[in-house]
Specification:
The protein is 37% helix and 14% strand. The protein is built from 14 helices and 15 strands. The protein has helices at 4-10, 38-53, 104-115, 123-134, 142-163, 167-171, 192-204, 233-245, 261-273, 288-297, 311-319, 336-348, 363-373, 420-424; strands at 68-76, 79-86, 91-95, 178-184, 210-214, 250-254, 279-280, 302-304, 325-326, 352-353, 381-383, 392-393, 405-407, 417-418, 427-428. The strands form 3 sheets. Strands 4, 5, 6, 7, 8, 9, 10, 11 and 13 form a 9-stranded mixed β-sheet that branches. A 4-stranded antiparallel β-sheet has the order 3-2-1-15. β1 and β2 (79-86) form a beta hairpin. α2 packs antiparallel against α11 and α2 (38-53) packs antiparallel against α12.
């Protein structure tokens, strides 16, 4: 099937932006299978490689080296903070993902020593060395990305405070304060009526006009073990949600890789019929050829990337035109800088970015910071409540949703003031 309509839906003309935004936009092949000659494919990979070569952090903002003297992981009950200090006394703080307790040894023994005495201005290079040369042969995914992101967030917070700039302007040329939101819902294991009732309950909490539902049952691979779901439920839910909310509600669907190719196409056709805006992870995230088969067959845009662990995963799908929306998770993928490179790779081919939002901590604020900095943000981004155990203030972005949007922090660094008494309750892990 010709997929020109899907490509037109996603292609945006964005002026300015990062350095790589000036790369020539390579149009997609609309020949039905979206296949490319060897020469065309090589050119597309070269474009993506050129994006990856460009530094993200604006080193030129810093006249003098910023040497990292200490890097600490602090714990209080089941929560973690990361604190970094320079030899000049500058300090940065970040809130760790709630799964940090699984990865403390990696933070302490593998990552922390690597950053001590390094010049924080060289963060692009440091991250590259960690991911490509130091650890990634034996560690990858959340095990490496999550603690690495926690460190990067703290360093960027410190650097932003040094030059009195928000992180968004350290890693990008955009500062889009208003971030459009969709409410992300779960409940896929429940019967239809209960599932739908909880969706309505979640949407009613906030002033939004966009919603993402889960289709399928549980997560990718479960279909072949013992999770079979409720036959026909997803098909009914897709229709029910659209009919309830009407044409003005922006709707999205996420399968978390549950389906095989044939069922993903079947469900995708129903999503197209009811005017859903994209289909996320229709098949397993790393089944690249299957993703492309689904993408080539359907007209609904295909989104993928929250589980991805390497640049090459994104490169293959973008070069082969098998994906329409890139979705790095800034925690899982190792931080803002690495995720920005994914956004810019997508931007080079006219694809938008909708980062996955990790729950817990201050994930909702960190996600808003990233969205505010990218040149190819989609109209709506993931939102999972303002729930947080962190005691903090965010003067430039109070936690509220108005007209379907929240504000991204614009204060120095991460723009967050974590309560000193709350920080003092945390003890350094030795």
């Amino acid at each position: 099937m010709n997929t020109t309509s899907r490509r037109q839906f996603l292609t945006t003309a964005v002026a300015g932006g990062m350095a790589m935004a000036n790369l020539p936009l390579l149009s997609s092949c609309a020949s039905g299978s979206n296949s490319f000659s060897k020469k065309e494919l090589a050119a597309r990979f070269e474009t993506l490689d050129n994006v990856l070569k460009q530094p993200v952090l604006k080193k030129e903002l810093f006249a003098q080296p910023v040497i990292i003297e200490t890097l600490e992981l602090l714990q209080y009950n089941n929560g973690f903070l990361c604190r970094v200090r320079s030899t000049d006394g500058a300090e940065g703080l970040s809130v760790a993902h709630y799964d940090m307790n699984f990865f403390v040894p990696i933070f302490q023994r593998k990552l922390r020593p690597f950053f001590i005495n390094q010049d924080a201005r060289e963060l692009d290079l440091i991250l590259e060395m960690v991911m490509q040369y130091n650890l990634n042969f034996r560690l990858e995914g959340m095990a490496l990305g999550l603690p690495l992101a926690t460190i990067e967030f703290a360093i960027l917070d410190m650097l932003g405070k040094i030059v009195n700039q928000p992180v968004a302007l350290l890693i990008g040329n955009n500062l889009n304060r208003e971030v459009g939101l969709y409410v992300a819902t779960e409940f896929r294991e429940l019967p239809l009526e209960e599932h739908f009732a909880l969706i309505k309950e979640e949407v009613a909490r906030y002033d939004v006009n966009a919603l993402k539902i889960k289709v399928g049952f549980m997560w990718g691979g479960n279909r072949d073990i013992h999770y079979k779901g409720i036959p026909g439920k997803s098909e009914k839910l897709i229709q029910l949600v659209r009919e309830h909310y009407g044409a003005d509600m922006a709707l999205y669907a996420d399968a978390n890789g549950y389906y095989g190719v044939d069922d993903a196409i079947r469900i995708g056709r129903i999503l197209e019929e009811y005017k859903y805006r994209y289909f996320e992870e229709p098949v397993m995230f790393n089944y690249f050829e299957d993703i492309k088969k689904v993408s080539d067959t359907l007209t609904i845009p295909i989104a993928n990337g929250e589980q991805d662990q390497s640049y090459y995963n994104f490169k293959w799908l973008l070069a082969n035109d098998g994906i329409d929306i890139v979705q790095p998770d800034t925690y899982y993928f190792g931080g803002f800088i690495r995720s920005m490179k994914v956004a810019l790779m997508g931007h080079a081919f006219g694809k938008n970015c909708v980062p996955h939002m990790s729950g817990g901590g201050l994930g909702f604020l960190y996600n808003a910071i990233f969205v505010s900095a990218i040149p190819n943000a989609d109209p709506h981004h993931e939102f999972k409540r303002f729930d947080s155990n962190v005691v903090y203030e965010c003067p430039t972005a109070p936690p509220k949703v108005e007209n379907g949007k929240m504000l991204a922090p614009t204060g120095p660094g991460l723009g967050v003031n974590i309560d000193p008494e709350y920080v003092a309750k945390h003890q350094p892990i030795s």
